[in-house]
Design a protein that fits this description.
binds zinc ion, two-stranded antiparallel sheet, 10 helices, about 10% strand
């Protein structure tokens, strides 16, 4: 009994130390974050996951769409304030209105998105959102939450006694290792989506795009109806609520507006 208590205390302390040593703040919003992955690990993970996507999807490098993604992506990246990121903006030839980002600044836009993104400013709303996920390190944050959940399981297993199931122990060990891709492509939480919208509006304004174009983009998306893309949908409020939220965020974003220097 006493020995179990000691083990339990040890596990709890380990988690506590990890939590304390892993506090971060999201850019622009100042939200407190728990991230226990350093930037180098994060970038290595993003780079290797990006290679997998590039191998498995049809990447478009020559169309007008691809050129627009590169053009807008570079402008947003230039104001994102992360020179250490190796920004990549890829276009995937697929008729799905979607986009996603991997840790460390690897952004993918599907050609199907151009049915709703009618010009550079509207595309900037999407890319700004994805860059927002990247600089707020949402992937690493989600990963960290999962690791702690698994450590928690392990701690509980030790506490309740003796037989830590091999599966739980293995999961905890695996979660420590980088490269297992734990949850990297799971949907973001609503908190993350809202925050990415907010940061995205600010970034597009800083890059010289009128943030109101985000409203037009989401109205176009809403008008399309039908099945919504996974990244934008699953945990996200309906288009209507999103449009309402964006409207409220516009004054803040406009304060960052700088006309683009040609
Ligand atoms: Zn998102």
């Amino acid at each position: 009994m006493r020995r179990n208590m000691k083990k339990w205390l040890f596990a709890a302390l380990t988690v506590a130390v990890l939590v304390v040593s892993a506090c971060a703040k999201a850019p622009y919003t100042g939200r407190n974050q728990f991230i226990m992955m350093d930037s180098q690990q994060e970038m290595a993970l993003g780079a290797s996951e990006a290679q997998k996507v590039i191998k498995s999807e049809q990447i478009d490098t020559t169309s007008d769409y691809a050129r627009a993604v590169t053009r807008v992506g570079r402008r947003i990246a230039a104001v994102a304030g992360h020179p250490e990121y190796k920004w990549e903006f890829h276009t995937v030839k697929k008729d799905v209105p979607n986009a996603f980002c991997l840790p460390g600044g690897k952004i993918f836009v599907y050609t199907g998105l151009f049915e709703a993104a009618k010009d550079d400013a509207q595309l900037a709303a999407v890319i700004g959102h994805e860059v927002g996920h990247a600089i707020a390190r949402h992937g690493a944050e989600r990963y960290s939450t999962q690791v702690v959940a698994q450590l928690g399981q392990l701690g509980t297993a030790i506490a309740v006694g003796s037989q830590t199931s091999p599966e739980v122990a293995q999961a905890a060990v695996a979660a420590y290792g980088i490269g297992v891709g734990v949850g990297i492509l799971l949907p973001y939480s609503r908190t993350h989506e809202y925050e990415a919208d907010r940061i995205g509006l600010i970034l597009m304004a800083k890059a010289g795009y009128n943030p109101e174009a985000a409203l037009t983009f989401w109205q176009n998306m809403a008008a399309k109806g039908g099945k919504k893309p996974p990244e934008f949908l699953s945990t996200h409020p309906a288009d209507e609520n999103r449009i309402k939220a964006i409207r409220q965020l516009l004054p803040e974003a406009k304060g960052y507006y700088r006309p683009a220097s040609s």
